[in-house]
Design a protein that fits this description.
Shape: elongated
CATH topology of one domain: Outer membrane efflux proteins (OEP)
Oligomer: single chain
Low-confidence stretches: 1-21
Helix content: 55-70%
Strand order of the largest sheet: 2-5-7-8
Mean pLDDT: 87
Largest sheet: 4 strands, antiparallel
Distance between the termini: 45 Å
Order of helices and strands: HEHHEEEEHHEHHHEHEHH
CATH architecture of one domain: Up-down Bundle
Number of strands: 8
């Protein structure tokens, strides 16, 4: 029995220790999401496909070499390649060789094709970084939402605690006849309303945890718990920088601009490839060939003529140059050039749109951060004033100098002021962290 108790105690201690280790920081959440996100994995596959295409384009400049061999069993009237005469009999013969071809000049199509796929690969790699950033930002927003909901739960708990203490005092006063029953019922209704607000806040917190767990793609039913940062600094350093300065840094740091820039350069090289199709093409080809035949006669002594000797004696080498000049292809090349030119213009518009969207995004984030900072300062003053008003109303209510409606109004005003302060605090902190992220800093918090 004692041994069983010892085992149970060890299991409990292990479970408690395991629970303590499962407190997730923001960086833990981001790292896990980046490791397990399916969309990010698919984006990486797209980049791998682009890398394969780039490697294939580089290999395309190498010579094309083909080896061939053939062996014929002839019956009836067939051509004897050794004498170049027709023979009406059964015999065997064959040939073998190596053929090679390399492009000497083709309007720089090979070079431009390599550059096209290189820029496309770079664009795909930047797309992976962009997906990583999007995931990190979404995880951060969900993480801060949990922090917000946790503080709202704490405020609701304090609100309920105050109402519960007021109810206990009211019941004592009712029993001694200091307050009528109607006032006691009003206090009980306030406690019920505060319990409802606490339930609502806890439900919102649970939903926020669920949202974060799903973003991280955790297993269903996993009991996610986050580590609350030790310090949430509310300073105006994040909004002291101008929008233009932030944009200049972000344009050099964030991948979405480089995605569009590399795609534009890839389209420009594609256009160069299409234009190269109008250029004359110069190819160099070579051939090494030999043949053998069962009917062949040794030219030296007319005796036996082995296949190996025939192959050595019948060796043939050829080196040639081919010049191909395009004259008319039914406007096919012209249409391809026109479509490639349209793709370049579209890529340029996409780059301009990306820069414009980024600037607007930074401007809105900066403006939102400034507004949240101002709201936080105002809410902080409102909390102080509402706390003093509530303390005064509580004293007056206890003396019976004000009715319950005035007391309830003061209490609700304090609750709203505290909630507004918390919401403004986390909205500003999140926006300030995103502005720092635009400047190349990490989203992680301690």
């Amino acid at each position: 029995m004692e041994r069983l108790k010892g085992i149970l105690l060890i299991l409990i201690i292990t479970a408690v220790a395991g629970y303590a280790q499962e407190m997730w920081t923001l960086q833990d959440c981001i790292d896990y999401a980046l490791e397990n996100n399916i969309q990010l994995k698919r984006q990486k596959l797209v980049s791998e496909s682009a890398r394969n295409n780039y490697n294939r384009s580089m290999i395309g400049v190498l010579p094309g070499v083909t080896a061939f061999a053939g062996h014929d069993f002839n019956s009836g009237r067939a051509l004897n390649y050794d004498t170049y005469q027709w023979e009406n009999r059964e015999f065997q013969q064959g040939n073998l060789g190596i053929r090679g071809r390399i492009s000497v000049f083709g309007g720089f199509q090979n070079y431009n094709n390599i550059q096209q796929h290189r820029f496309l690969l770079m664009s795909r790699l930047e797309e992976v970084d962009r997906a990583r950033n999007d995931i990190s930002l979404n995880i951060s927003a969900a993480f801060f939402q949990i922090l917000l909901e946790k503080e709202l739960v704490e405020i609701a708990e304090m609100q309920l605690e105050v109402s519960t203490l007021e109810l206990e005092a009211g019941r004592i006063n009712f029993r001694v006849g200091n307050i009528p029953g109607g006032r006691l019922y009003e206090i009980e209704s306030q406690v019920a309303a505060d319990e409802y607000q606490l339930t609502l806040a806890r439900n919102n917190l649970n939903q926020s945890y669920l949202d974060l767990a799903q973003m991280m793609q955790l297993e269903p039913g996993y009991d996610l718990r986050i580590k609350v940062p030790e310090i949430i600094d509310i300073g105006e350093a994040a909004i002291m920088n101008t929008v233009d300065n932030i944009y200049e840094e972000a344009e050099a740091v964030l991948p979405q601009v480089r995605v569009a820039e590399y795609m534009l350069r890839s389209r420009e090289k594609e256009l160069a490839v299409m234009r190269g199709m109008q250029s004359p093409r110069l190819d160099l080809q070579g051939l090494i060939y030999s043949r053998y035949s069962e009917l062949a006669v040794n030219p030296v002594d007319g005796g036996d003529y082995p296949y190996s000797t025939q192959i050595r004696d019948n060796r043939y080498r050829q080196l040639g140059v081919t010049l191909t000049i395009p004259i008319f292809d039914g406007w096919t090349t012209r249409n391809r050039i026109s479509n490639a030119r349209v793709s370049v213009m579209d890529a340029q518009y996409h780059l301009d749109e990306t820069k414009q969207s980024l600037y607007m995004e930074i401007h809105q984030m900066h403006n939102g951060a400034r507004n949240a900072y101002n709201r936080y300062n105002s809410a902080e003053k409102a909390v102080i004033a509402a706390q003093e008003a509530f303390n005064y109303a509580k004293e007056q209510f206890g003396l019976g100098l004000i009715n319950f409606v005035d007391y309830q109004y003061a209490q609700n005003s304090l609750f709203r002021a505290q909630s507004n302060k918390v919401q403004a605090k986390y909205e500003y902190y999140l926006r300030s962290k995103i502005l720092d992220f635009y400047l190349g800093e990490s989203l992680a918090i301690q």
